[in-house]
Amino acid sequence: MSAENASGPTEDQVEILEYNFNKVNKHPDPTTLCLIAAEAGLSEEETQKWFKQRLAQWRRSEGLPSECRSVTD
Hints:
Blueprint: H1 11-24, H2 30-40, H3 44-61
Helix pairs in contact: 2-3
């Protein structure tokens, strides 16, 4: 079955995204985002969307509001 983009990134792509999220930066700047997107073989939009969703998920797991205005890490 080819579930290319139907259900989001592949396992390999998620591995790259997770690595960058956990080890590099939870809030990548546009340049970093572009590099991560290139490394994962995703568009910048897809990568940004993934980071946004992942950050909301992380915030919930930390007991924080999923959206936050001006809290720096």
